[in-house]
Amino acid sequence: MLRLARLARLLALLAPGFALAAPLAGQVAHEHRPATQQLGRVSFSVSCNAEAQRRFERALALLHSFWWEEADSAFPAVAEADSSCAMAYWGLALNYWRNPFAGGPSAGELQSGAAAAERAAAIGAPTRRERDYIAAVNALYRDHATLRHPARLRAYSDSMEQAYRRNPGDPEAAIFYALSLVATASPTDTTFERQRRAAAILNPLFRRYPQHPGLAHYIIHANDSPRLAHLGLDAARRYARIAPVVPHAQHMPSHIFIRLGLWEENINSNRASYDAGAAYARSHYPEALGSHEFHAMDYMVYGYLQQGRDSAARGVTSGALAATRVIPAVAQTTDYPRAAMPARLALERGRWREAARLTVRPSAQFPWTEGITHFARGIGAARSGDTALARSAVQELARIEAELTQRPEAYWARVMTIKRQAVAAWIALAAADTATALSEAAAAADLEDVTEKHPVTPGELLPARELYGDLLLEAGRPGEARRAYEATLMREPGRARSIFGAARAAELSGDRPAARIRYREFLDLMSRADGDRPERAAARAYLERR
Asked: Which domain holds residue 401?
């Protein structure tokens, strides 16, 4: 009972809507195993006995929704039913790869995945179709000691393309190939060529198989960008109903809702994801929070802050930081949210001194998560007059940037460059070097404009283009500031700071009609706000003028 009481105290720190029923005495893990019909419908014929076939399709449904923890035992259960079923080991190998959009599996997962892939090949498969799948997963792990993650992922995609073309009547080959296209797309390709190709494969299949979890899931991933998000809205609104017990299926729709500024849908999606993840956690690792929950919490905090629901955002953040047991102990989807949530809470509300005092959480495996805290500290320090601390933050960002250039994660080195330039701009402004400030801020914004956000984050802590608008206002150039804010809103609709910034810039430029429209929009967005943001009073005061 003491353990349950401690868990209850942790959950009580979270925002309203997180109330969870106490677990029943004597519950055991298998009671929470999801039924197949709660995972969606997957049909994938394999050369195994009938019981293995049934178990395989359930395991594959779990894999399609990235529920790796459950699939870790589901694929071995297939092999238990039929020891000659090579595809059981194919699935296990693919499951060990974990998130194809992350930086690759851990060292232990890499070894386990490679062993499973080799086992699948050693057992052999009686059909060419199955051998194609097994060849592809072996390409994913081949030379894993020397070849970096992006190269092996591209080799897997190339091999899956062959499987797709050799098996034109196989929807699963098409689905896995399409996913590989999205996973190997360049974050700097503003044409979204690979994502569009993936969507062209997935959309017709989704019309034929509307209950397939992978189709809904991967259509969302294919359209997870500002220009394409509206094309993923239907899949987003349907995915949660396809797999109602899966934490990731509840969360994933919010990737589209965030892109479209649908804050209430985003919040509800991540509440449901948290609830599903916490229910699973209670039966498997009591008193702990898992990476699914942390990821959902960060997305939820982002949505709450756009609505000015600062108390709710603070409650979720406090709950995340209070967790003393985290499963797994090391994961990007844990380290990033725990750094991002307190930073968002300070920066979105303009609490610069609070941001400057944030504590950096060490993360040897994911140093960019340290970088986002240094960014928040640097912006906060520069905007509250502590330029020495801001310069120290720039040095830390440069150190992390240099380290990451030696790693496979070149994307994160680029993100650190953007954040370093943004902080440097505010340091220059504090030194009255306006020309350098504007140059650095514009460079950061231009680079971020051609760099897609990573799926681990709902959005940048403060967009570089929005910060450029802030700086232009400080420099007395409201017309240019307004263009910067409007450009931010094209990329990230519904952002509260940019809506207010556009209103303020229009006001200072003398465009009263535009200012009134944006101020009304801001107050509508803040209709449920409970914080003490001065922007609300400023907007009301302007609209009350005759």
From this structure: 350-462
